[in-house]
Design goal:
Keywords: ATP-binding, Cell membrane, Kinase, Membrane, Nucleotide-binding, Phosphoprotein, Transferase, Two-component regulatory system. The protein has eight helices and seven strands, in the order ααβααββαββαααββ. By secondary structure, the protein is α+β, with helices and mostly antiparallel strands. Bound molecules: adenosine-5'-diphosphate. The site of adenosine-5'-diphosphate has 22 residues, from helix 5 and helix 8.
Length: about 260
């Protein structure tokens, strides 16, 4: 009887701990959701006046201004544009980071998504004189997911490859079904990433302190958004890179929907 009592006491304690942990987890989730909604509201509210500022600045571009004023105007415009990029990225991050947002998976052809993104980035890629090689099977490569999120994921990764690769470089994209997963790799011949920076790449607002990188406009939110989208799709993302030698980002996504 003593032993049974002991076991019961143990089980009760376990149940209490379990319940406490469940409640804690719920609270963390609620807080994360609140944070996302707060960021969404703020970025939304900032967008309207910012659009007005940028609109007026554009109007003033055609005015004949003294050189000194024109210089200041350009600086103001660059600042406002930077702010807009930040607001847009924050809005997307708040949408994908909200844990209360559940994914309703739908079969998405990743090869088509990559083709679409390449089409949209065409002007940038040509301007940068970049060669793009896209290697994918002839048939569609479908993954269960959210087409808007997957499009954003590819835009950010391919956009980064273009941004951080000097003129004349090459971007190689491969898409291969690999067992139960689908693997998408984006390799560039760009500036590369140091091992210390690789540790922090997916943090919100992280940008390399490399002067070569700081000259290129960015918000440091692109990869945080990618990371969250990959997580939402129950996938993984890895990076292999060396400074001066380029980078490879590999996303691995389940080819089949997980049973609920
Ligand atoms: P952003 O490009 O707006 O700065 P990201 O979150 O997309 O923000 O990327 C974070 C940082 O990771 C970049 O500032 C850059 O230092 C580094 N990075 C990302 N992609 C690449 C790449 N393909 N090659 C070299 N560095 C990269």
């Amino acid at each position: 009887a003593l032993e049974i009592g002991h076991d019961l006491g143990h089980a009760l304690k376990n149940a209490q701990t379990f319940e406490r942990e469940r409640r804690l987890l719920e609270e963390v989730r609620e807080l994360a959701s609140y944070k996302s909604r707060l960021i969404a509201t703020i970025s939304h509210e900032l967008r309207t006046p910012l659009t007005a500022v940028l609109g007026h600045l554009e109007l003033m571009e055609s005015a004949r201004l003294p050189v000194l004023v024109a210089g200041s105007m350009q600086a103001v415009q660059r600042g406002a544009q930077r702010m807009r990029r930040m607001v847009e990225d924050l809005l997307v991050l708040s949408q994908v980071a909200d844990p209360s947002r559940v994914l309703d998976p739908y079969p998405v052809d990743l090869a088509q998504v990559v083709e679409d993104v390449l089409g949209l980035l065409d002007v940038t890629l040509t301007r940068q004189e970049l060669t793009v090689v896209f290697d994918a099977p002839d048939e569609p490569v479908r993954v269960p997911g959210d087409v808007v999120g997957l499009d954003r994921m590819c835009t950010n990764l391919i956009g980064n490859a273009a941004k951080y690769t000097p003129k004349g470089g090459t971007i190689t994209i491969t898409l291969v079904p690999s067992g139960e997963m689908v693997e998408l790799s984006i390799t560039d011949t760009g500036v590369g990433i140091s091992p210390e920076d690789q540790e922090r790449l997916f943090e919100e607002f992280f940008r390399s302190s490399d002067p070569e990188v700081l000259d290129i406009p960015g918000t440091g939110l692109g990869l945080a958004i990618v990371h969250r989208i990959v997580e939402q799709h129950h996938g993984t993302i890895d990076v292999v890179s060396a400074p001066g030698e380029g980078s490879t980002f590999t996303v691995s996504l389940p080819a089949k929907a997980r049973p609920v």
